[in-house]
Amino acid sequence: MTEYATFLTAAHAAFLRDLFPGDGCVLSPEGLAAFSTDASRERAMPWAVVRPQGRAQVVELLRWADAERMPVYGRARGTGRVGGAVPSLGGVVVSMLRMAGEPVVDADDFVAVVQPGVITADLQAACAAKGLFYPPDPASVRFSTIGGNVATCAGGLRAVKYGVTRDWVLGIEAVLPGGRVLRAGGRSHKDVVGLDLTRLFVGSNGRLGLMTEIIVKLIPLPETSASALVGFADLASSLAGAGAVFRAGVLPSACEFMDQGTLEAVRMGPGGDCIPLAQGARAALLFKLDGTGPGVAAEMDRLIAALAPLGPVSVEVGRGEAEEAVWAVRRSVSPATFRIAPDKLAEDIAVPRGRVAEAVERARRIGQAHGLTVLCFGHLGDGNIHVNIMHDRSQPGVADAAHRAADEIFRLAVELGGTISGEHGTGLTKASFADEQLGRDAVELMRGVRRVFDPHEIMNPGKGW
Amino acid sequence: MTEYATFLTAAHAAFLRDLFPGDGCVLSPEGLAAFSTDASRERAMPWAVVRPQGRAQVVELLRWADAERMPVYGRARGTGRVGGAVPSLGGVVVSMLRMAGEPVVDADDFVAVVQPGVITADLQAACAAKGLFYPPDPASVRFSTIGGNVATCAGGLRAVKYGVTRDWVLGIEAVLPGGRVLRAGGRSHKDVVGLDLTRLFVGSNGRLGLMTEIIVKLIPLPETSASALVGFADLASSLAGAGAVFRAGVLPSACEFMDQGTLEAVRMGPGGDCIPLAQGARAALLFKLDGTGPGVAAEMDRLIAALAPLGPVSVEVGRGEAEEAVWAVRRSVSPATFRIAPDKLAEDIAVPRGRVAEAVERARRIGQAHGLTVLCFGHLGDGNIHVNIMHDRSQPGVADAAHRAADEIFRLAVELGGTISGEHGTGLTKASFADEQLGRDAVELMRGVRRVFDPHEIMNPGKGW
């Protein structure tokens, strides 16, 4: 076990101030507080925050941190929901937001070379300006960075057709503890020389090193898209409907699901009575199709025909400017959940696609057994269901009940051949469950691999495996 | 450095005969000879060959081999071109061909669970029978196995649209030296718990362990496809044409290229004067589009319109039963090359897509400087060019000249920001170049990672990194 530094000495502080002049180094308690948490609301105070502007500073920082056994927590916009960026052992938080130069989008090579602090939506916009497409589309795309997306292997809406972040990363440059610089992969769309260290970094949660440059693969921007919001009388028909669409040979670029409770929460909100969904709908599917105009039109026909035998109670197709309207329901879901209860545990289990019905049904019953409402919605197309355990922690015993329900839902996911996290990761809040799911042998292998890059385990320590 | 076993003792032989009864263990020289080589024509005699029928035997084998420091070479159909399966230090070859049970294709989960010895085309057929699609399509698909494809991260024709083998593997079961069993990933389409050991195995060339089960992701089988063979007056227009197609927003499922010398070789063969390509064509592109009928038709219109400004000398579109005819040219390329010279070095460099023109032109000039014909063809869409150095090794000095030309072409690929192998791997024949491309630091990290799984480096030793 590493004997970590236990506080920031005056010499440490002097080193950091020297390496990161001006506001590149934050040491004041009020300045540090902003970096103590992320979207998980877990909290731990770092001893220092630094803001590198280039690779050279990161090299010096990690040479020093390795020698000093200083915990190092990479961070960008802090949109992670599991405390992945929370500095649980104190140490130094490294904000990558100043490494955010203009992405280099190459329309001949079909790649973008991008620094980690660039907002993913900005990268997508830079690509779209040249008729190119970077498909991964996590819900946080307008706020989160490409560095954070790669570190966590972000998923999102379009994964059902286009895969997750992992599938789009061609190369990385990373600085390792001790200051070594690793360049893996590159601008070639194919490369099978050596072990695949590039993808090992994807989803490694800042535990192998700090990425300073990322090369992603691009494809031509689809010409158009269209969407359909489809209401069903019950859960079973909606899930059967999704299966029918896939069996009809249609591969949507999004296939989202909302259960009864979720729809009720949406209807309780402003404008909730004029959403483009029949009142009788107790479950809904939202599909997006992309491609050429004629291709999308043909796929939409097949999709609607495939759903017909399930007797949908409403079908609202959105094309062109009307497309956004059918998405408004889905976008309003996350805030709407708080109309059910003031607090939620938002989990993102994933199960084999054919087990989603069982997972949703059993998750709801687990909630009931604890006297709690469980809302399920999310990325049905890839079996990645966001399970929201709504509760009111101001009531005695309720927070505990919610956590017990979450534990049961995690075990349910594993029992169904799934995983406790489809896309949020495990970070701090699910660290012990991650180790349980993986088993001792796999955890030992992962720690072994980590130590090859980070022998003293200074990178994002305290997060399991 | 491991002190490997240097020969097979009587006790070793007895152990293997006991664990693999009957013809499950091969020890006769004539029996062993068949396992001494692969499509590289490199050769080294193993001391024993075993044919496990299930995981339990593999566990016992690797427990024993680790203790005995016995080199272990996993192998399937031996279609690899770089000696990846050649037992360069002797030891035991493990043929995985008897682990080839019927693939379990699950049309609800959209996954297939498959044993490593299953032929990839058989897996694809089992999927197609249920309207499902496993896209990776290496040229060897009718002969090579899914285990070999995963071990080498096979690429192929459809990678431009669908990615390579890596992008389709959701989970693996592997036996590690010492007999530990690793299960990584699973049937969930999304999973971000822990380090990504699943993809670390993809392309690991049998150097981390022996895979005993593979879970792949499936998508709906496209409804139809159509292809177009397009001739150009010169190399530059053909490469510009490919760029124009991508810029028009069309993402073909294949985008193949053939240069002048390649077309001449094809024309020299039987039926060569009636290929569906204008006589004046000095370069050709071959596109495949897939999707719904109307979608493919619309994309074909856009594709042809995008090419028009480049003035193609012929455009032959193949639809339905006529589609195969336009592919006959491409399929005849590999045997046709031998009409130019009796021997070839077939390399598969990949470069950033925008550098293909320069790569092809300079590769040809490198050949000329050595008095050799270099034929270029292959997967233009992802920058993966098969460079064939034709020569006659019966002439004095010519084999050496061919190897010198290959060395220069490898360095050219790296200079252009590419890689010495897009899909064949580096195995035995390119081991030293692999280490040169990767650099000492990356090689050290890869060896470190290998040792986590295989502390005594018994798995496929003698192949660089």
Q: CATH first level of the largest domain in chain A: which class? A: Alpha Beta
Shape of chain A: globular
Looking at CATH, which topology of the largest domain in chain A would you report?
A: Uridine Diphospho-n-acetylenolpyruvylglucosamine Reductase, domain 3
Low-confidence stretches of chain A: none
DSSP strand tally of chain A = 18
Q: What number is the mean pLDDT of chain A?
A: 96
Overall CATH architecture of the largest domain in chain A: 2-Layer Sandwich
Strand % of chain A is 15-25%
Radius of gyration of chain A: 23 Å
If helices are DSSP runs of H or I spanning 4 or more residues, what is the number of helices of chain A? 16
- Please list the strands of the largest sheet of chain A in the order they lie side by side: 15-12-14-13-17-18-16
Oligomer: homodimer
Biggest chain contact:
A-B, 97 and 97 residues
Number of domains of chain A: 4
- Main sheet: strands, sense, barrel of chain A: 7 strands, antiparallel
Distance from first to last alpha carbon of chain A: 14 Å
Residues in helix, % of chain A: 25-40%
What class do helices, strands and sheet pairing of chain A give? Answer: alpha+beta
